[in-house]
Amino acid sequence: MITISEARQTNEMIREENLDVRTITMGINILDCADESVEKFCAKIYDRITKKAERLVKTGDEIAMEFGVPVVNKRISVTPVSIAASACACENYVEVAKTLDKAAKEVGVDFIGGFSALVQKGESAADKKLIDSIAEALSSTDIVCSSVNLGASRSGIDMDAVRRMGEVVKETAYLTRESDSLGCAKLVVFCNAVEDNPFMAGAFHGTGERDCTINVGVSGPGVVKRALEEVRGADFETLCETVKKTAFKITRVGQLVAREASQRLGVPFGIIDLSLAPTPTVGDSVAEILQEMGLEYAGAPGTTAALAILNDNVKKGGVMASSYVGGLSGAFIPVSEDHGMIQSVEAGALTLDKLEAMTCVCSVGLDMIAIPGDTPAETISGIIADEMAIGMINNKTTAVRIIPVFGKKAGESVTFGGLLGYAPVMPVSEFSCAAFINRGGRIPAPIHSFKN
Question: pLDDT tens for residues 186-233?
Fold first, then answer.
């Protein structure tokens, strides 16, 4: 039950501190649409998506209007296409991606995720077909998002797939070069991908999920920053308690919206993802939270410790507010989408190496980072391999969403627009890892994977 006091505090957070529900994401199972004919499969998934999600956008808008809580995005995730389309007798899955795009536009959502494959232990024929389709699929659609899980703590890292994904990122960058390689912003690779993530580009509807679910992602970096301003200079115990209490309030808002959406749509409620997802708007930044903790810039010594404090206490506060916290839940550190991160890069405080260190304790990993367009595919694969290793060894989700901007060099900048923001092109090590990446095979799981 939401109290009057909580309602007043919520109104203040929305009005003055950029609190919003970042997304209501409907997960839809498309496994029973399987068909040998790709045309019939596409017709079935179009029908399934447009029927299941026909009221999603309208319902999200109605809730936003009635409760005064901004609902920024309405999204759909589907069963990984490499699994659902595996029976199709076709050369590639580009037509499937186009069908997803068409269906998503028909119901009016912002993005649709699930053009995905799970290859942490090796590729099936369908997985290979999907991976080979990604670049063309993302260059010929507008709102389709793609993800590939390359590693897991229980199974190791598929280095053949890591090598291939470095090439796919480059191919996608080239095919979308007219829009500053924007296709790469819709492509993410994971270690330990979760099945109920409502955020793009990594959302897909896992095979362990119900037939259809509602997952909600809340966001409130500005709220946390404002709360920490009230305890400026206080000790770490006070800092931690403040973050926990604030995360509790933010999550309660998400819980309210999720329950309401679930009831109105007649779709079971899945999870609340309480990740602090920033925007390019000033005052809505994870980096600014770190600065409020006492850092001159994000990237200064102490940044990883500060981010660890933030991530842990957001989770501690969130799980007190909802019994169904899931997804990624913590703090995102995308460069282009965070005004404070951009400033830190421009000031020279934040480098790619420091961002990698920060991913040991954040929600995901290297996110929305622009790099020179002439970066070799093997170097991109090496960056991916490093992140996969961090996730595998630390038993956490890590990811890479990196954009080699065609025609751009380090020190230049690129504008993506909207929530994707703009980014300085960051330099990448020029030392080669090609011989390492080209070994192929699979990196075995760490010893702590044997827990049965």
Answer: 999 999 999 999 888 899 999 999 999 999 988 878 888 888 999 999
Q: What are phi and psi of 396, to 5 degrees?
A: -140, 165
Residues of the chain with pLDDT under 50: 1-2, 4, 16
Q: Which of 47, 119, 133 lies closest to 90, judged by CA?
A: 133
How far apart are the C-alpha atoms of 313 and 309, rounded to whole Å?
6
Give ∠ CA 385-202-205 in degrees, rounded to 5.
125
The b/e string for 392-430 (b: 16+ C-beta within 10 A; e otherwise) is bebebbbbbbbbbbbebeeeeebebeebbbbbbbbebee
- Give the C-alpha separation, 332 to 296, whole Å: 19
What are the structure tokens assigned to 143, written together?
Answer: 């709102």
Q: Determine whether 233 is exposed, middle or buried from the number of CB atoms within 10 Å of its CB (0-12, 13-18, 19+).
A: exposed
Question: Distances from the Cα of 162 to the Cαs of 76, 182, 440, in angstroms?
Answer: 27, 21, 9
Residue reference for tokens 């409020």: 292
Other C-beta atoms closer than 10 Å to the C-beta of 65 total 10
Q: How far is CA 40 from CA 27, 89, 111, 220, 410, in A?
A: 21, 11, 23, 43, 47
Answer whether 0.85 is exceeded by the pTM: yes
